[in-house]
Amino acid sequence: xxxxxxxxxxxxxxxxxxxxxxxxxxxxxxxxxxxxxxxxxxxxxxxxxxxxxxxxxxxxxxxxxxxxxxxxxxxxxxxxxxxxxxxxxxxxxxxxxxxxxxxxxxxxxxxxxxxxxxxxxxxxxxxxxxxxxxxxxxxxxxxxxxxxxxxxxxxxxxxxxxxxxxxxxxxxxxxxxxxxxxxxxxxxxxxxxxxxxxxxxxxxxxxxxxxxxxxxxxxxxxxxxxxxxxxxxxxxxxxxxxxxxxxxxxxxxxxxxxxxxxxxxxxxxxxxxxxxxxxxxxxxxxxxxxxxxxxxxxxxxxxxxxxxxxxxxxxxxxxxxxxxxxxxxxxxxxxxxxxxxxxxxxxxxxxxxxxxxxxxxxxxxxxxxxxxxxxxx
Amino acid sequence: xxxxxxxxxxxxxxxxxxxxxxxxxxxxxxxxxxxxxxxxxxxxxxxxxxxxxxxxxxxxxxxxxxxxxxxxxxxxxxxxxxxxxxxxxxxxxxxxxxxxxxxxxxxxxxxxxxxxxxxxxxxxxxxxxxxxxxxxxxxxxxxxxxxxxxxxxxxxxxxxxxxxxxxxxxx
Lengths: 377, 171
Prior knowledge:
heterodimer; A: alpha+beta; Phosphonate_metab_PhnG (chain B); Phosphonate metabolism protein PhnG (chain B); lyase (chain A)
């Protein structure tokens, strides 16, 4: 039951002013600018864009500043903002094969065409705190350049190398490639969910949740041992075909991280064994999320592969209904909001039940007091 | 297709389009337009604004469609080449302008900069009308290619050169 209650207005206004003051922090410290966040906290920006499901670096930086660095709060702000905008078009499917890579590695082939390109990575760092960053002593940095740029079109490990021998299953393209694509922003999720819906859900899903599920598949809560066939991070151009033009135009570049896993093979007495695949694709630079997504995508293909469901990561309904952190935080946190009337009802019920039990106990006691003297005789 | 795309007297028609649309073959004029629209979409507002003021400040034009901020749903394919899926949205600004002779220019650019979209549409119209901004477009394209190449060289410096350590006692 909901009952309107008034009286909190002044307290709420003051609470928000206190919040603003605390967000700003000590006024002797320079105020952080959104362009500084956009440039120097770029992996936070990346996460907010991916899970906010809206690629806009400036807006993500603003959301992070407004949310005091609480990324889920920032993601919530992005989600709210996107509902105010019209959707002009769907892009043509982006071509990750044509990505301008900043990083590209394979854990399955050491010597592969195009090479192992490390790019800007935390891998192989010692994870020791660098106190020069705190002392503002960092010198202007300039990374060294190679003589030649990296190859423009890196071959793909799964499609161009493994599949050359037919060792990995094809990515099936449905017969009708113009068929509608599921969109969870317009239609409620229904089960069983197709792979299109599952991939959309995972790409905007909470990084921690998808990471934990991915980890669970490695610890035995799914039957799909994975190798990282390839990870690539870089920029791709986005093309749309506006009706008024009638031809495709390129509207700019976005950064993406893509991960393709090579998983446990499948075959039978009559069918040649083949490796299977998992796919991860996220906005920005986020390898942890892309790998986790690929692990969970593969685990959720259990039905299609005829595998026994033995862990939560294989259960699409469980995964998809709990992956969204805005939805989760909304329901988890709503229980802190006033439930005075609900609780009043519960309170009265418990009091009434207690009275009933007390009365019954008193009656029993009286009865036994009456019968005891007889028993003593 | 608009009337403008059917023109064949546009400039730059013999240049190689950088982003050829593979699903439907396009004529040379359209390919040239795709190229300059792609270059303009990647050019910050300040460069467009400065060049417009310097070379076309006295042009008469009107707004056909005010700059409007919206979104494009970006699509990917499972495994890079399989079933399509909706990855997430990106902000996009579009605009359409009309020059005094009736030439209509369009723009769709990433982000939320209304003025960038307006100038991109204006330069699209100029290119359709007489191609007089083709040097400007070429310079922008060259600068963009240079920046991309510089980055690609820095990335190339992170390529692993594997070598094998010789072990054992040969001598």
